[in-house]
Specification:
Layout lengths: L11 H5 L4 H11 L4 H8 L18 H13 L5 E2 L12 H8 L2 H4 L11 H18 L3 E2 L6 H15 L7 E5 L4 H14 L3 E4 L7 H7 L5 E8 L10 H9 L3 E6 L10 H4 L3 E5 L15 E5 L12 E6 L4 E5 L6 H4 L12 H39 L12 E5 L4 H10 L2 E2 L1 E4 L2 E5 L6 H11 L35 H13 L21 H4 L5 H4 L11 H18 L3 E3 L5 H18 L7 E5 L4 H9 L3 E5 L9 H11 L3 E7 L11 H10 L3 E5 L12 H4 L3 E3 L20 E3 L36 H34 L18 E4 L1 H7 L3 H10 L6 E2 L6 E4 L7 H22 L17 H5 L8 H5 L17 E2 H6 L8 H5 L1
Parallel strand pairs: 1-12, 3-4, 3-5, 5-6, 6-7, 16-17, 16-18, 18-19
Antiparallel strand pairs: 2-8, 7-8, 9-10, 9-25, 11-14, 13-14, 15-21, 20-21, 22-24, 23-24
């Protein structure tokens, strides 16, 4: 099949796909195939091949796509938002927007699993953790969660684990918790068998009263909003004491900006704090992405979900950052994992942290006081006109009492260019923020028919018990960068310590690090998308919802499924949503007893974690020696569990990078037993345009838009994990209580805070599909498969390729087996990974899905020069290994074991059996493009034993 792009898209496809026509011919020769079609015929089982071309028309050009996006954006109406409910207007500092959000050095980086080349974003995340810890007063904060509502749900399970009360204890939520958080928590609670009670907790002052609200049952956890959804600020000390007396833990869902003025949750007894950092410089974006947060008191840090950045030391004893406590990751703990989170919101957490660095504690307090002053002025005007508000003490949100007039007041506000929130027929709420102007206050006052508000100084009238007294953000980093010159240089210095796709290839198997084209990224900062509130009226969000509908339809065509929900804001959330749909389907058919989920031993770890979260019991199916699912073991498991079978979760192509020719038989066997087939879409980039999981036997799949469909990884998030289903599961897709348009009325409930998840980054995937068209998408898949087979062919004689199909071919990735090398020489996958840094590469995926291996996925975007550069680096490293094998160099003092080599290390005393030049400039490294790791190899065990998860003092680095 020709590599020549189709006439309707002569430019973009050729620019997205790395190898040119001559390169494809040369690569095919190395692989031993006469054509792409011949390669595909031998690599992909004919039984799953799509019968027709993928019928998606490509746009004429990149400018044409921008015009189409402009047209959609124009159909959104961006009013001044005073809806609040966890989403607020914010000014993104221009230096942060340009140098982080719009900078590929930040947005094309991968999760910092190779910490030596991730020191910049790890420092930024440590700043983030420090901001959260300082403002909440709790000892340890994580490196971000997905959003506020899922953070509340994560707090629920953390409290369940951390409390010592009876197993049938209940969770109690205050009635003023954000409505979306109540709904998401209920969705999470049902499959776990946790009962949720929603009640007014303002009068609870002893354990007996709390127990009475819970129906005379034990309570394991309590969650309050601080300030409440109605705007009220309450002293929760009595409730916290009562909860602790009864053995429960307490979570505060807290507003970080308010906490610059409010008593920190830790000081009134909260064990956990959660929330969102959206208003720290991250646009509302119709719901996301935004960085959720969690912080915990001492003693709970080792049970926190998600990622935690800590400070360790490198081989020279210098402080260095890394992810701490990584044994919590799902691929290790699997069904014993306490969460299925596999992506964070790193890019957004970095933005929020730099908002705090830019403003510092004084600047944040000024913004908070100015915000509060606007709310006070508005309240004074309302009160002067006889309009009551419900809270004596508030920060930025007022709930006005308007008996029988709520709809009229909301309509009047819209007529004046402002959105406020209808609570019920008698109440409306309105929230101000840092972007609210005097004109906005005038407009909303006019809607109420009251006098123009007069601004004061923002001094709160709160009692002393509610007012912060201690300092926060005292670390020098929050005081050092007040000029833009200084801030610009700080951001540049951090990005220089990182390795991202703008430097070179990131050949991670299973993670698909390919081009994130600039045109695809262009529209995400447009105000028509960025400044939309997720709960804005439907008639104001026509353009973005049309874009969402387009993308859903295209994904259905690509996958062969009938319906798609874009609400899941991570692949793990898509898995969870798909499994909930399966459970709801069985329940609707009177088969709620079906609770067994079969999962191959080779599956992604999140599969097992998601299954447990969905209330299913995991039964592992063996993997055959050749890498595919062991069908004989599957048949045995079906025989044992058929009556209780809910589903099987299978990744296709397999996690081992092989197109299994047994997939259709597997699907048939499971269907015959009454189960559903969940095809994990992690490897969909090997299928697009060639095969459709919805056609070859799948009932449901999650997809990864941050992989196959070009949303950048952002250093470990954002992600989008849509769930795609066949028609019989469509009634059970996610929905949302605050948006009728978000899903079916019969749905399983919301699984993310916003109705359409991380909607502001969906234009990236929309633009990618529109630019590529069906032919371009198909060609991308073909090239990805060719590239993987090219790498396998070039490296096979140096490193055994662990799995291959019947014809010796792999899919879109290949696994290099180092286990024999390690046994013979002592050289480990870690040694090879760290040595690759000296050669200017990010390592492939280490020890997954098989310990002691490297999984390589080159993607279609890398050109032949970069593929060869990688192959030659690996071959050269094999030569270095051979020197160890031959006894010429001891492994403990080899260039491999001491890698990576920093510039500083070359200036120190040198007593190694290799030269400085061999260390720093191995074969093939261009001195003019040399990437220098900022630290030497990091001691992970030291960091876990000595857990430091907030900014250390400068003296620590001097010592």
């Amino acid at each position: 099949m020709s590599h020549v792009p189709q006439p309707q898209h002569p430019d973009f496809v050729a620019r997205h796909i790395g190898p040119a026509d001559d390169d494809v011919a040369a690569m095919l020769k190395v692989v031993g195939q006469s054509s792409l079609e011949s390669l595909l015929d031998q690599a992909i089982p004919s039984v799953i091949r799509a019968g027709a071309a993928l019928g998606l028309e490509a746009a004429e050009s990149e400018p044409a796509v921008i015009r189409e996006l402009r047209d959609k954006a124009s159909r959104n109406t961006v009013l001044t938002s005073m809806i609040g409910l966890g989403y607020y207007g914010t000014h993104t500092p221009a230096v942060v927007r340009r140098n982080i959000l719009e900078n590929p050095a930040w947005y094309t980086a991968y999760t910092p699993y190779q910490p030596e080349i991730s020191q910049g974003r790890l420092e930024a995340l440590l700043n983030f953790q420090t901001v959260v810890s300082d403002l909440t007063g709790l000892a340890t904060a994580g490196a971000s969660l997905l959003d506020e509502s899922t953070a509340v749900a994560e707090a629920m399970t953390l409290m369940r684990r951390g409390s010592k009360v009876a197993k049938d204890a209940v969770l109690v939520l205050d009635a003023q918790l954000m409505p979306q958080s109540i709904a998401v928590t209920r969705t999470r609670a049902v499959p776990l068998g946790i009962e949720v009670v929603v009640a007014d907790l303002t009068t609870v002052s002893d354990a007996a009263a709390l127990r009475a609200l819970a129906g005379d049952r034990d309570v394991f956890g309590v969650v309050v909003q601080y300030p409440g959804a109605d705007g009220s600020i309450r002293d929760w000390r009595g409730l916290a004491d009562a909860a602790h007396e009864g053995g429960a833990l307490v979570t505060a869902a807290a507003d970080l900006l308010a906490l610059t003025m409010l008593t920190p949750p830790a000081e009134w007894g909260a064990d956990i704090a959660v929330g969102t950092t959206q208003r720290f410089g991250v646009p509302m974006g119709f719901g996301g992405p935004h960085a959720g947060y969690m912080s915990v008191r001492s003693g709970l840090e080792r049970t926190m979900p998600g990622r935690l950045v800590g400070v360790s030391v490198d081989a020279d004893g210098a402080p260095a950052y890394r992810l701490a406590l990584q044994t919590r990751e799902q691929h290790i703990r699997r069904e014993k994992a306490t969460s299925n989170i596999c992506t964070a919101q790193v890019l957004l957490a970095v933005m929020a942290s730099m908002y705090a660095v830019w403003h510092g504690p004084d600047g944040l307090t000024r913004i908070a006081r100015a915000t509060h002053a606007k709310a006070v002025a508005l309240a004074d005007s309302l009160h002067a006109a006889g309009v009551e508000t419900t809270a004596d003490h508030f920060f930025d949100t007022l709930t006005a009492v308007v008996p029988g007039r709520a709809d009229a007041v909301v309509e009047a506000a819209v007529a004046h260019g402002v959105n406020i929130f209808r609570v019920d027929a008698d109440h409306v709420s309105l929230s101000v923020d840092e972007t609210t102007t005097a004109e906005d206050l005038h407009a909303v006052a006019s809607a109420f028919g009251v006098n123009i508000p007069t601004l004061g100084d923002g001094e709160p009238n709160w009692p002393t018990v509610l007012r912060r007294t201690g300092e926060f953000l005292t670390h020098p980093v929050f005081h050092a960068h007040r000029s833009e010159t200084s801030m610009l240089r700080y951001l540049r210095a951090l990005s220089d310590r990182d390795y991202a796709l703008d430097r070179g290839m990131i050949p991670l198997g299973s993670c698909t690090m390919k081009l994130n084209a600039t045109t695809e990224m262009e529209s995400i900062t447009w105000p028509e998308f960025a400044n939309l509130h997720p709960f804005a009226p439907a008639d104001q969000t026509v353009g973005i919802r049309e874009l969402i509908s387009d993308l859903e339809g295209w994904l259905c065509k690509i996958t062969g499924y009938d319906s798609v929900s874009l609400q899941p804001n991570a692949g793990s959330q898509g898995e969870f949503a798909g499994l909930l749909a399966i459970h709801a389907y069985h329940q609707a058919n009177g088969e709620a007893h079906r609770n067994i989920c079969l999962i191959p031993a080779s599956a992604h770890g999140t599969n097992a974690a998601s299954a447990v979260m969905a209330g299913l019991k995991v039964v592992v199916v063996k993997t055959a020696p050749t890498g595919e699912v062991d069908l004989e073991d599957l048949k045995q498991k079906l025989k044992e569990h058929g009556e209780s079978l809910a589903a099987i979760m299978v990744t296709y192509p397999s996690t081992h990078g092989v197109f299994e020719d047994t997939i259709t038989e597997l699907c048939s066997l499971v269907h015959e037993a009454g189960g559903q087939v969940y095809v994990d879409g992690a490897n969909l980039n090997a299928l697009v345009g060639l095969a459709q999981p919805g056609e070859f036997g799948g009932d449901v799949s999650h997809l990864n838009l941050h992989k196959t469909f070009c949303i950048p990884h952002g250093g470990g998030g954002p992600g989008v994990g849509p769930v795609a289903v066949r028609a019989h599961l469509a009634p059970y897709l996610p929905n949302h209580p605050l948006s009728d348009e978000a899903g079916p009325a019969t749905g399983v409930g919301p699984i993310s805070a916003a109705p359409f998840g991380s909607a502001s980054i969906l234009p990236i995937s929309w633009a990618y599909v529109r630019l590529m068209g069906g032919a371009g998408l198909t060609e991308a898949t073909q090239t990805a498969i060719l590239s993987a087979n090219y790498v396998a062919a070039r490296l096979r004689e140096h490193f055994p390729v662990l799995y291959a199909g019947e014809n010796g071919l792999v899919a879109h990735e290949c696994i290099l087996d180092l286990r024999g090398i390690t046994k013979d020489t002592g050289v480990t996958v870690d040694d090879v990974a760290k040595r690759l840094i000296d050669y200017g590469f990010h390592a492939p995926t280490m020890s997954f899905p098989v310990a002691g291996t490297l999984m390589v996925e080159p993607t279609e975007s890398e050109d032949l020069h970069e593929l060869d550069r990688f192959c030659e680096a690996m071959i050269a490293i094999r030569g270095e290994i051979q020197a160890v094998a031959d006894g010429a160099v001891p492994v403990a003092d080899s260039v491999l074991r001491h890698a990576p080599h920093t510039a500083v290390s070359l200036t120190q005393d040198w007593d190694h059996p290799y030269t400085r030049a061999e260390a720093a400039y191995p074969a093939g490294v261009d001195p003019l493009r040399k990437y220098w790791a900022p630290v030497r190899r990091i001691d992970g065990a030291f960091g876990d034993r000595n857990l430091i998860c907030s900014c250390p003092s400068p003296e620590a680095f001097e010592d």
